[in-house]
Amino acid sequence: MNHDALVVVRTFSNRIEADVAKSALDAADIDSMIRTDDAGGMRPGMWPGTGVELLVRPEDATRAEEILAGA
């Protein structure tokens, strides 16, 4: 997945919430990825305030939003 061509569909306060949402998108066959600035999970305290972002391709954003709204 090309990181430059992705859009943020949701920002979460923690990785667990982001993983659950990503699972919902995976079940709907929507490719997604999670982005956070936490040194690969080693330093979760590094990202307070910025959140954990869930990204998808622009063409999947509307459908992803609909799925996440119902999840």
Task: Please write out the topology.
Layout: E1 7-12, H1 15-27, E2 32-35, E3 52-56, H2 61-70
Antiparallel strand pairs: 1-3, 2-3
Domain count: 1
Poorly predicted runs? none
User: How many strand elements?
Assistant: 3
Q: Oligomeric form of this entry?
A: single chain
- CATH top-level class: Alpha Beta
| General shape | globular
CATH architecture title: 2-Layer Sandwich
In the sheet with the most strands, the strands line up as: 1-3-2
Enumerate how many helices there are, as a single number. Answer: 2
Task: Provide the helix percentage.
Answer: 25-40%
What is the residue-averaged pLDDT?
85
Computed Rg: 12 Å
SSE series: EHEEH
From the N-terminal CA to the C-terminal CA, the straight-line distance is 24 Å
Largest sheet descriptor: 3 strands, antiparallel
CATH overall fold name: Alpha-Beta Plaits
- Helix/strand-derived category reads alpha+beta
Strand content: 15-25%
